[in-house]
Amino acid sequence: MDRNDIDWRGYFPAFITPFREDGALDLTALRALVDHYVEQGMHGIMVNGTCGEWFAQTPEERRIVAEAAVEQAAGRLTVLVGCTAYTAAEAAGIARHALDAGADGVISTPPPYAKTFPDETVAYYRELGERTDGPIAVYNWPHGTNVDIDPELASRLADLPHVVAIKDSTPDVEQFYATTRAVVDRIRVFGPFMSRRGLEVLRESGGDGTVGGGSLAGRPDPTFWEDVWAGDFDAAAAYADVVERLFPKLWLPGGWAGHWGAYQSQLKVLMGLLGQPTGHVRPPRLPITDPEAIAAMRAVLVEEGLLDADPPVAA
């Protein structure tokens, strides 16, 4: 398999997993969120990744979430399911279930905590592919694995039989562009292209999409990619300016957390403020409940035109 065996491209929200206040899965909200993303024209979703709090779910819950998302998507957008685990054998079991349920592909980081050496990282993905009869995306998430997949290692992974894509979340953006140039001829590349510099790299070297933390803006996110495909680079550049202005107001450098709390905690608050289907976080994440923090997030959304200002209070 290689990039030509799949059609994955465009904007894929990293899908949150909605939990109720008592900690139970909220499958009603999950299905509503799938429908919301379809209505907004998203090209795909990534389920049970970092934003999906896979680490806070039981194995059975991960299967339930995958099944519900695939069923609700019903072929209307691409569904990638996270199968990250501590061993390739465990990840493969999760991956086979997701593929049997109808997922378009699976995605995995290197094993968390283990801090694998390059040869070990390659061996992990090789074994995952041998145990999984389906397309695999590599997920480079240094903040969660303490492994940063550089261009040389990415090139080795791109040569593995079942690896067809990479979601590269390195905090080193220039490394990301170097990785793009190294592997884009063989596998699909998803990453931080939605900037002026990223747009230049897209035009020079190619690239396929972005897997972003949810989609606060909605329709403009997939529209960026559709503008790129149509050759309307002025429109794409104008929206890239919006993204570059908004991101540092909400997220820490490298995008690993928010200014007011953990990524998942802050994202769920922001989504709720925007009226998107959301839910609560689950331990080890803690909810953001400080009124001043929530007011500050609301102020950013208002400032950027994503949310109407509160109407004046009648005298």
UniProtKB/TrEMBL annotation:
The record, for Pfam families, names: DHDPS (PF00701)
Q: Which Gene3D superfamilies match?
A: Aldolase class I
Q: Where is the active site?
A: 139, 167
Which Gene Ontology molecular-function terms are recorded? Answer: 4-hydroxy-tetrahydrodipicolinate synthase activity
Question: Which keywords does the record carry?
Answer: Lyase
| KW Kinase (keyword) present | no
Where on the tree of life does the source sit, at the highest rank? Bacteria
Residues annotated as binding pyruvate are 211
CDD domains noted in UniProt = DHDPS-like
Family named by the database record: Belongs to the DapA family.
PANTHER family (UniProt xref):
4-HYDROXY-2-OXOGLUTARATE ALDOLASE, MITOCHONDRIAL, DIHYDRODIPICOLINATE SYNTHASE
Could you tell me what this protein is called? Answer: Dihydrodipicolinate synthetase
Q: What is the lineage of its organism?
A: Bacteria, Bacillati, Actinomycetota, Thermoleophilia, Solirubrobacterales
